[in-house]
Structures are given as structure tokens and as C-alpha cells.
Amino acid sequence: MRTTPRLIFSTIAVLGFVGASCGSDDAGSAATTSASTVAATGAQATVSGVVTVFAAASLTAAFTEIGDAFMVENPDATVTFNFAASSELVTQIGEGAPADVFASADSSNMTKLTDTGNNGSEPVVFATNLAEIIVGPGNPRGITGVADLANPDLIVVLCAPEVPCGKYASKVFEQAGVSVTPKSLEENVKAVVTKVTLGEADAGIVYLTDVTAAGDKAEGVEIPADINVVAEYPIAVTKDAPNAEGAQAFVDFVNSEQGRKILASYGFLAP
Amino acid sequence: MVRAHRPTDLGGDRVTLSAQLALQLGTLDLHADLDVRPGELLALLGPNGAGKSTVLRCLAGLALIDSGRIAIDGTVVDDPSADVFVEPEQRPIGFVFQNYLLFEHMSVLENVAYGLRARKTPKVEARRIAREWLERVGLADYADQRPRALSGGQAQRAALARALATNPRLLLLDEPLAALDAGTRGSVRRDLRQHLETFDGMRILVTHDPVDAYALADRVAILDAGRIVQVGTLAEVTAHPRSRYVADLVGVNLVTGNVTDGVLTTAAGAHVVIADALPGSSFAVIRPPSIALVREPAVGSSARNTWSGTIADIDRLGDRVRVGIDSQLPLIAEITVAALDALQLRPGDEIHATVKATDIEVYPA
Amino acid sequence: MSSRRRRGRRVGLPVPVLALAVVAVVFFALPLIGLLWRAPWSNAWHYLTQDEALTALRLSMVCSLWATGLSIVFGVPLAWLLARVEFPGRGMVRALCTLSMVLPPVVGGVALFFALGRRGIVGQYLDRWFGVTLPFTTAAVVIAQTFVAMPFLVITVEAALRQLDGRVEDASRTLGASRWYTFRRVTMPAIRPALVAGAVLAWARALGEFGATITFAGNFPGTTQTMPLAVYLSLETNPEEAIILALVLIAISFAVLVGLRDRWFGRTDRPISGVTA
């Protein structure tokens, strides 16, 4: 009795693999089939070639580890990353940059991709993140909440409003009813982290995962849930992906249990 | 501060230059003692590389001496042992450079006025004085032109006016005629002489051309290989040459050696029989025309000196011929063209040179 | 036939050399042509008159001019020192002062951080004793720009000073001029073309400075957001606006470079030294 479901699964898996390897035109649909089939088991056919992943800066540490794990599962494949602000990445893709996968830190940038029809698969939200206040180790300025950031004596740096974490920050301030004038608007979230860890800035608004990643170089001050925003991270294959099977395989891997576990270890929350 | 611009009689006693300088510059080892008397023009004459320009630069303060002492007008301007050094701009000097070094980006008038303005003379006054100087040297029409518009001779006059406008006590001229072509040199030399004569201060002129020294100088100092070998009027110096340089200048053979018992022996071991000379280190001058050339050593000749050698080169100069002879005592003899043809002399021939002892002038070294 | 030959002779370059030169011209012209082609001319005025654009432009001009001024004030004496005074380690000093030319600008910005930032070697004392913090201020923009631009001026002026016939300065001193007077009235006029060229290079470099600025000074409209930063950021949300802003920057630079004609850079037939025949 137990052999039958396994037999069915493996037959479908083999069919899916055959379908995927026969012709790239219907790679999209075949890949989706195999993706939904193997998502639960985590087992998949090995892919080869280079997979180019454009991912939001806040995903740097997590995705690098996911990439390593993916390459262990698929020894013939090589994953290369381009980490930057999501807004910058989507513009580059729009200008024809050869990305296979796009992972954004917010939905609006993913929407920019789908609006222009540049996606090869339906975007899937694979993780969520929370915004958090980042301060220096020991919290020398004694910041307790968002309202403290309005203090003009503090050097506060934020992400520029064009990038996702900047948008999230403005939303937080809006919901909290405070007005904050930052000293600088950085063009990606990692730059904000750097300014704080170097001691040049007193505080900034970044993602929860960034605070975790900073280790003992920084501390976080929680933002209460009622004013906080939930950042949604969608991921999709690009339309003109040079390595479409590899792209889908990577997306599947991210959504798999193994991928989820890695994300969680960095502080990302389940979608 | 308005400075007197007309040459004034500065009085005899105060205006002097006393310089003893020693300096090592590259391969040049310079040791020179100079004294310039009030109102005197001393020419520093010598071959290229002797260190003449270096002496001027030291006097001007553009080069530092290693040891010694320079005093202008009784004021010490350079004394390494006493740690005294006066900057060029503080010295009462004027300098005319070999290439004039006029300032290209200023007019001729501004060039001449430069020294006055640098010494804080007000602009209007400085320009007035400069204009007077330009008139004096005949360049009034070029006052507002750039130096590039001037010919060689004109540029030299402009440089002279510029140097004199500040009324220096000591005027230094470094080969002032060297940059001119032979055709203009003569007339420019005459002009320079006139202008220099109206200047009462001390003047030192460096040149490698003895004609300059002859035309312009009161006294001459011969500088050769970093040493001053002779000082005196040009007549004195050329009458009794003490260096190969002057000897070549005058066109005579100069022999150096030690005299004992009526014979001068050179370092190379050649013997020169001479008439009545005091023993000791001496110079002997043998004039080329007094040397007779013979193919076979003469027998029974009263000439006490005969040297054997080979003919090195033959130069015809009009009706005269200069024959260079390689021997233990290298000589240049002068004979007639007729004699040359008669003896059929060729370079490389063996020849004997004879001179009478009474025809050789000897004086102590 | 003869006039055509004469015309042909005027172009003194051999054909292969001419071809390479033409390729070079095209290489520089193409990106500009690309920008002009993609520019949204219908919206140009709207983008140009936006507050942010004008503020960024004003800030860029003010800061770059300040940076050029500082480069001249400090750079010329430095060039004079390097050209005229022999001292041990001169080569090292020269390399040090022109290091920022070869350093990636962001690295320069980070280095400035560690020197003048709130926790920097000098910066920490500025903060502790005087309450002065440099990062995130307009002054920081000027500092970053000066840091990358000054070497261009130093190199140009030093080369000119070396070429200058030192004897002209000797002549000046024998006339009674102090070293400073000589420098003012003889040396500087003689090197004026090189000084102008160096200043223009420095200004252009300062105007285009991005990496050191965004790292050390940060990015905030009105205070530290210069044109290059504005262009970069608007590229992320509105590439059309970015193109217009970029073209403005190009137009200004172009105007300055063309306006500073050969006359200001010195006539080629004039000798540099003060020597008259």
C-alpha cells in the first residue's frame, strides 16, 4: 500500500523532469508542475549552468547561504548574485540585464516587473520581514522607540524613499504619527547599517534581519506591531532568463523546506 | 623710497669688492681671490668650464661658497665660517645674464621698472625712472613692446638698463656679447663700452673673448680650471703669459720648467738653453716666428736649441704658415709659404726645430 | 587640381592614424548621442524646474567651485614645494598627495570617514572638543570633492614649474625681488596656462564626484545631494528624469570647456621660459 503513492509521485517527478528537459518553450509550465510536485519533498532533478540571481540587499547573507546549499544539491550549477536595492535591480532588468531570478524586498518593485511583462513565472512571496530601529552596541543614546528618532540632536540615517526600506520607514513614521528629518538618505539598506555600525550615525531604520546579521556590532530597538509594516518578499523567474530551468529550480529551492529553514535562521518570517 | 638713478660719484674708499671664494661644484674645484677697486671694470677671462660664471653667481648670492669670504662695500655678504649669508635680493648688485632673461610677459618698460618696484618704489615713480633709462640706452620707442620684439643688441641694452635702474654698487655681466652674431657684436660692444663708462660703480665682466677684455676692461683676471692664474692689465698679462690659455691667446709657445745653470728643464725632460735667467721655477716664451725648421740638424749653428720631432699639422694663414710639431717639447713654428714649398713639408715628416737662446724670453713663475 | 592637393596636404596625419582618431571621437560622441536620443524632450522642462533638480544643481555648482578654490589655495604651494625644493622622501610625498587620483572614489570616501568622521582619528576630537561633526554636512561634500580633485591641479602645475627656466627667477632676485615677489610677478604669470588647465580639470572632477561624496557626506536634498547623486537615485525610479538631469550636467561642463578657449590655455607659439634671443 505504501509503495503506490511513492510510485505515483516518482512517476510524476520523472515525467516532470522529462517535460522540463524537452524544449525550453514550455519550460515555464513544466517547471511549475515539477516545482509544486517536489516542493514538499525537497528532492529535485539537478540543473547545470550559471544561475544569475538579482536579490534585494537585505537578502545578502541568507541568499548566499541558500546559494551554497543549492550548489551542493546541484554540483553542476553555479549561482551568482547581484545584491542591491530592489528598485535599482528592477531598473537594470528593464534595461536588459541578464538576470534569471528576481527577489524583491517589496511588492511594488515586483509589480514593476510584472507590469512590463518581464516575469516568466507568477511571483511568489517566500518570506516576510519586519522593520526595526538599528542603534550602536549598548544603545548609547538610549533610544526606546520611533518617537525618539524625531530628536534633532540625533544623527538618523534612512534609506532613500526610492528604495523599499525607505518606503517602509515612511510608512512606519506615518503610522506612528512622527516626523523625522534624517541626515542622509542612503541608496541601499546595507549602507544604513554600515553608517550605524561605524558609529557615524546614531540610528536608522532597517530590517529585522539586518540587525540580526550585524551581530554584536549593533543592537535593535523593536517597533511595536501596531505601527510596524510587514515587508513582503516576492520572488519570480524573469521572462528572458538565459537559464530558465536553473532559474525555476532556484525559486523552488528557496520555497522548499530547506530554503525556508535557512531564511528563518537569519530572522526572516514565514510568508 | 626714491632711489637716486643718476650715476653718482660714490667716493673712492668705500666702494670695493673683496672676495676669497672656494667652492666644489661637480667636477669644478674653484679657488679664487678677487679684489676689485672702486670704479674699476675687471674682466674675468678664461676658457669655457673654467668657472667664470660660477664666480659671478657666488658674488650674486645665487650659489653658495663652501669656504671663504665675500664682502661688498665692506659688508660681508657670504661667510660660511661665521654663518653669514645675505640673500641676492639684499645685495647691492645688478646682473646682466648671458641670455638677458627679460620677462616675456611684461613690456620692456615694466622689465626695466621691475627692480625698482620690487624694492618698493611706487609704480609711477618707478616707471618714470625706467623711461629715463630707456632713453639713455636708446630704446624709448620700444617701451611698451614685449621683449620678443627686440633684436639681440636691443635686448642686451634693455637688460643692461634693467640692471642699472636700481643703482647697484656692483654690476655683474655674464658673457654679455656671446648671444650675438659676429656681425653685430662689434657695434654692440662699442655701445656697451659707452654705457659702462658712465657707470661709476664696480663692474665685473665675464667673457671668453679677449677682444671684449681688450675693449672694455681696466684689468683682467685669467681664470683657468678653477684657479686665477694671472691678474693685471691685458698688456701685462699677454706680455708675460703664465698659462697655456693666455699663451694660445697671444699665439706664443709657453714652456714651464725649472732653470738651473742656464738650462730650463721641462717636466717631460726636454732641455731649453736660455740666456741669463735666474734659477728656479720659470716660464719661457718662444715666439713661433723665431723657430727655424731644418730637415737635417745644422752643424756649426749658433742656435743652442734643437729639438727633433714630426710635423703634426700645417695651417696656412695668408702668406704665413703655422706648423705644429710633435716632439718632447711640442711647438708651433711660423714660416713663410715660400719656405714651406722649398722644404716640401708634409705632415708626418721628420723635422728639427731650432731656436736661439737669445730669442727666448724667460721670467720667474 | 592644385588647390585640392593643397587642401589634402593640410591634414598632416597619415591615414591609419586619422582613422584611429576618428574612432576615438565616435567613442566619445556615441554615449552623448544615446542620451540625446532617449531624452524625453516633452517632459524636459518639467523635470528641470522641479525643486530637487534645481537644488541639486545649485549645490553642485557651489561645492565644486569651493573645491576648486581650495585646490588652488593649497595645491599651488604644494606644487611649488614638490617642484623646487629637494628634500628626503619627496617622491613618497608626491605619491601620497596624488594617491586619490588612482584610488576608487568610494575608498577615498571611506578613508575620509576614518579620518574625519565622528569616530575618526581627527574627527573624534573635532566632535568631542568643538562639537563639530563633518559627515552629512555640505562642508563634507566640499572636503570629499577637494580630496579627489586637488591632485589634478597639483600635477599640472608641478609639471609647468619644472619646465620653467629657473634662471628667470634668478634674474628677478638679483633685481631685488624677494622669493614671494618673484613667485607673484614672474613665476605665476609664466605658468598661468597650466594653472588654468589644472583648475579646470580639478573643477570638472569635483563636479562629477560621486563615490566619495555619497560615502562620506551622505545624501540629503539641499545639503549633500549633488547632481551626480540625484541622477543616480532618480535612475531607480524615473530613468527619464535621470537622463534630463544628466544632460544638464553635461551641457554645463561642455559650455565651460568650450568657453575656455585656447587663448586662456596659452598660445602654442609662445615660449614658456623667459628667454629672449
Characteristics of this structure?
heterotrimer, A: 271 residues, alpha/beta, D-Maltodextrin-Binding Protein, domain 2, 3 domains, nine-stranded mixed sheet, 42% helix, B: 365 residues, alpha+beta, Rossmann fold, OB fold (Dihydrolipoamide Acetyltransferase, E2P), 2 domains, six-stranded mixed sheet, 9 helices, 25% helix, 35% strand, disordered N terminus
What would you note in describing this structure?
- The complex is a heterotrimer of chains A (271), B (365) and C (277).
- Chain A is of the alpha/beta class and 271 residues long.
- Chain A is 42% helix and 20% strand.
- Chain A starts with a helix and ends in a 6-residue tail after the last helix.
- By secondary structure, chain B is α+β, with helices and mostly antiparallel strands.
- In chain B, the strands form 4 sheets. A 6-stranded mixed beta sheet of chain B has the order 7-8-9-3-10-11, with helices on both faces. A 5-stranded antiparallel beta sheet of chain B has the order 2-1-4-5-6, covered by helices on one side.
- The radius of gyration of chain B is 25 Å and the shape is elongated.
- Chain B contains 9 helices and 21 strands.
- Chain B folds into 2 domains: 17-241, 3-Layer(aba) Sandwich (Rossmann fold), CATH 3.40.50; 251-364, RNA polymerase II/Efflux pump adaptor protein, barrel-sandwich hybrid domain (OB fold (Dihydrolipoamide Acetyltransferase, E2P)), CATH 2.40.50.100.
- Chain B has helices at residues 52-60, 108-118, 123-136, 152-164, 182-197, 210-216, 234-239, 244-250, 337-343; strands spanning 17-25, 28-36, 41-45, 67-72, 75-79, 84-85, 93-96, 170-174, 202-207, 219-224, 227-232, 253-260, 263-266, 271-273, 280-286, 292-294, 305-317, 320-327, 331-336, 350-355, 360-364.
- Chain C has 277 residues and is mostly helical.
- The chains are: A alpha/beta (271), B alpha+beta (365), C mainly alpha (277).
- At the A-C interface, helix 4 and strand 6 of A face helix 14 of C.
